[in-house]
Amino acid sequence: MTPHMFPTVVLLVFMNVRLPAKGCPLPCACFASITDCRNENLTSVPQGIGLQTETLFLTANQLTTIPPRAFWNLTSLTFLDLSNNKVIPDNDTLDYVRNLLSLDFSENDIQTIPTDIFQPTPKLVWLNLAKNQLKSLPNDVIRNLHNLTYLDLSDNFIELHNNTFEGLYSLDTLILSGNRLSSLPSVAFHTISQLQILELSNNKLKYLPNNLFDKKDSLTDLILSNNTLTGSIFPALRGLSSLKYLYLSNNRISSLPPFPLESFPLLHKVTLSHNSLSVLPDGLLKGLNQLSVLELSDNSIAQLPKELFQNSSSLEYLHMDRNMFSEMPMLAGLQNVVELTLCCSKIQHWPSEVTLSQLEYLETLDLSSNLIVNFDMNIVRNNTKLTNVLLTNNPICVNMNLSVAMPLKCIN
């Protein structure tokens, strides 16, 4: 399939357009090198699949077994989707598909992976085993998948060991969310030298071993949301010099050490929402010259350090909703912020030293659900790009004349 055909083919497949093609089994839909047999209540792999098939969708059927010779003549097959079935795989399930690059085995209630199932597929680069019933992943099963770059093991019951990922020399994306993990082996990821994206959200992690990320200077995305982590995890993160995205929302972080993020100069986004923070250290943003998104919503913050944003000229999106502010925090240093949200707090006072004139790129200011009674239009008059000042559910909305108060709005 030529590259310029791919968008058209995908569109036709997902629109379920049925077009004639040589070697297309009923009741499937086929186009060029794609055979789409999704949602047909199939109990067996249909016979007569075209030899030209490169992409085969068998998604959302009633398949329970795959006969050893089901794909014996599909030498061009590179993408196989068996997701959302009831397949129990055998060692010979993938026989004959030696050119397979991508395999989706998610949502099949698989409890164990046969030891030799991936022996015929050494070229595999993308593997999805999410939403099964896996309790372990014996190293021998994936040891020889040296070309694998993407592995999704989310929503299983997998317990990790030190050598679980041994041999995955090319792996750059590993998804482990929703596995009920309460701890991690200290060298669980040491053999994955190319790892860039690690997803560990929706587990039960309370701490991280201090040497967990040793020699992981390739990691760019670390997702730790929805765990029970505290501020004690930050020593374990040191050394992640290439980190760009750090997600720590929905944890139990009540305090942060001094300069907690200074080891990550390339950070673009940090989420600390839905924690128990009441005080932020003066040096929270020290050295983060590329930070563009900061999430601090749903904490108990009543006041910010006066110079917190002094060197945050790259910050574009700042969300501090549902905190305990009684007055507007200092905004000096946020000259490039585009969206600033402070809804659902207790703000009623606007100190004279807090101005918006230096926020020349500000487009949205959300102050809804506070206690604001008066609003000085001079605060927003000089900001030509400011089109939304949301004041819904504030006392000021009772008598505000909207015809002359734009861009102030009492309706979201």
UniProtKB/TrEMBL annotation:
<dbReference type="InterPro" id="IPR050541">
    <property type="entry name" value="LRR_TM_domain-containing"/>
</dbReference>
<dbReference type="InterPro" id="IPR032675">
    <property type="entry name" value="LRR_dom_sf"/>
</dbReference>
<feature type="signal peptide">
    <location>
        <begin position="1"/>
        <end position="23"/>
    </location>
</feature>
<protein>
    <recommendedName>
        <fullName>LRRNT domain-containing protein</fullName>
    </recommendedName>
</protein>
<dbReference type="InterPro" id="IPR001611">
    <property type="entry name" value="Leu-rich_rpt"/>
</dbReference>
<dbReference type="InterPro" id="IPR025875">
    <property type="entry name" value="Leu-rich_rpt_4"/>
</dbReference>
<dbReference type="InterPro" id="IPR000372">
    <property type="entry name" value="LRRNT"/>
</dbReference>
<dbReference type="GO" id="GO:0005886">
    <property type="term" value="C:plasma membrane"/>
</dbReference>
<keyword id="KW-0677">Repeat</keyword>
<feature type="domain" description="LRRNT">
    <location>
        <begin position="23"/>
        <end position="55"/>
    </location>
</feature>
<keyword id="KW-0433">Leucine-rich repeat</keyword>
<dbReference type="Pfam" id="PF12799">
    <property type="entry name" value="LRR_4"/>
</dbReference>
<dbReference type="Pfam" id="PF13855">
    <property type="entry name" value="LRR_8"/>
</dbReference>
<keyword id="KW-0732">Signal</keyword>
<dbReference type="InterPro" id="IPR003591">
    <property type="entry name" value="Leu-rich_rpt_typical-subtyp"/>
</dbReference>
